[in-house]
Amino acid sequence: MNDDKTLGEHLRERGISRRGFMKFCAVTASMMAMPPSMIPAIAAALENARRPSVIWLSFQECTGCTESLTRSHAPTVESLIFDYISLDYHHTLQAAAGDHAEAAREAAMKENWGKYLLIVDGSIPAKDGGVYSTIAGVTNLQMLQEVAEGAAAIVSVGTCAAFGGLPKANPNPTGAASVSELIKGKPIINVPGCPPIPIAITGVLAQYLTMGALPELDHLGRPMAFYGQNIHDRCYRRPFYERGQFAETFDDEGARKGWCLFKLGCKGPTTYNACATAKWNDGTSFPIEAGHGCIGCSEPNFWDAGGFYNALSVPTGNTAKTILGAAAAAAAAGVVIGAVNKRNKNKAAAAHEPLTVDELNRE
Amino acid sequence: MSSLKEIPVAVTYSPDHPLGTGNVIPILNEVRHALQRLASTGDSTAIDLASIPFGPGERDQLLQTLGDGEIQATLHALGETLIRETAYPGAWVVTHMSPQGMELTTHIEVTRTPSLLSTPQRDIEDAAEALAAYLHEQSIQESA
Questions:
Q1: Does B52 share its domain with B99?
Q2: Pick from A6, A43, A31, A10: which is nearest to B120 by CA?
């Protein structure tokens, strides 16, 4: 492909009509969580967008993030965007291996120094000089530092790259760290999730292509478009929470009727992600709709935040009585409990006691 | 098994009492306001259903309530796009599908004519040139 061509020219070369292009823009706007009124602006920007070089580094990871992206439910748009970028290095997807693969990465870095987009999935083992994971004899830590230096921006895909994820879980034998803990002075976008929702990944790429700029981020560096609201607030089971109707076990009447899974450990009130609206598997469902509580996979340290099946931790002081009473009575307590849980979540393991279903029942 | 639709498990619900968010009536009200705006000022509105949370059955309930109107059209570009007027003229449901037949996104457009049904200006110009070239070629062949 001629690198001087714009995306509009590239699409028309592939036989995509102007109506097809407008459809592409409509789907892209939806993917970026932008209002339909933005479609003309997106069309104008994408028409003139130029092909960026992308280097994708995979470190301590399971390849679930790549699986999520390549098996996503919008193959047309995703493939168009993915085909359009110049993916110059990706262990799993590239044909080249060994020295040839590394040479491709170095060539892409040299040709696009200061302009390429770096995508990272997996955490980086930083203990003992980073010896616990190497690629072509180079530690992950060293490779990240080298490639990050010439990147225009970095996208940390998945909870491992964004926050450390499973490799960082206690006792963290490799000293696993997130990208943002190791790299300073570069724009970093965190797209967490285990794995992330694919449209969150391509939405960031589309935003970068469209606007030539990074999206609006929250305090954890996540795009607001996808992580701006918590699961609980967007959950279709929220009305049951408000009415105090909870499933007590996974096979009781409440579970069969689709009642709130809070008592079964749902982390929806403290988890910010787009699962409740974007959903998974062709938009079929998401974990809560399938009958399992949210495990909070897009939040930092979610593996160490208490058991997946324990109700959210609550403080043991006076506030506890307030919250427990509110949870039992439920009505109008959603905002309060959500706020308190969020505030106290990171201290839960050390300072708070996990709230079991039995305890909740006794209150 | 080649499609998720072949998995023999489905969420059961009653159309009269769908599980959920209670978002159906608010969206219908939004459509009502958009129709009033279209009638009075001519301004169009589009609602992206992908950005709205629905419980099992709620989205079906919304689309069933809007019903079918007089016009249905299919665009063949990057997969099919189904455009149909609802039982409330001026309110259209536009569903973009992938070439594999998977739904990508659905908009409710409140407008006189969905923009995808209009021919783009550049396509009209190209069409005029293409037809002129064809007729020119024909005239050369006839004169030869």
A1: yes
A2: A43
